[in-house]
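This follows on from our talk about sequence and fold. Please put the record directly below this note.
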Amino acid sequence: MKSFIRWAGSKKQILSTLRQYWPGGRVKYIEPFCGSASLFFALQPTDSILADLNPDLIGAMRAVKRDVGRVVECLRRLPKGKNAYYRVRKNDPALLSHNERAARFIYLNRYCFNGLYRTNAAGLFNVPYGDHKGNLKIDESTIIEAATLLSNAQLVCGDFEETLALAQKGDFVYLDPPYVTEKRRVFSEYTPGSFTVADLRRLAASLKRLDRRRVTFIITYAYSAESRELLGEWNTRRVKARRHIAGFAGARRGAYELIATNLSN
């Protein structure tokens, strides 16, 4: 099953590697930085918690879970094309119903540049229209299929520590936090200050608490000095992945991800 959401930093390219860590069965799946939740949709767990700080993202997932038919109806009413995109983007989401707001989020996410989520100082989405060479469409069947899986998911809008506090012995946690490094700029934030280097220390402490409670976790992070320091005490492996943030395809380049887990080799 595919995600109905595009997301900068999505781990679609390394899903085959990440799936190897999943124990299967009726294990509870927890993802505190869910983004597009591509691993969640690929694994299709029967019991899960998806969480994120982004209220628009979680709101859209809740609306799809609650009444996917109404969300799809709202999507069908939205006009297509570059000029239409900017008109839809300009609409104040506070004046829309929950279903209309979810449809607007899915629409902007589908047609914006590279699936980025960025807001201005006023908290308004400001990513430009993407230069789509192919016929990029909203796949209604994928959204409808996602609603079935989301029906068994608990959806949380909040800080990662609050979500990890819900994890119990035997649960499986996948963490894919926004990237922050001190040496170079990496696109990592929904809004200014949403995740900082200081949060990495909280994250490191959270991993130790999960391990003490015998909660299985895997975490992916950009291969960097910060990730090697943060994750060095766990079992790690480096995998290659292609970045999709640069403005032109020719400027995009391969990079490495560090995967760490408290599972024994």
Observations:
- The longest strand covers residues 235-242.
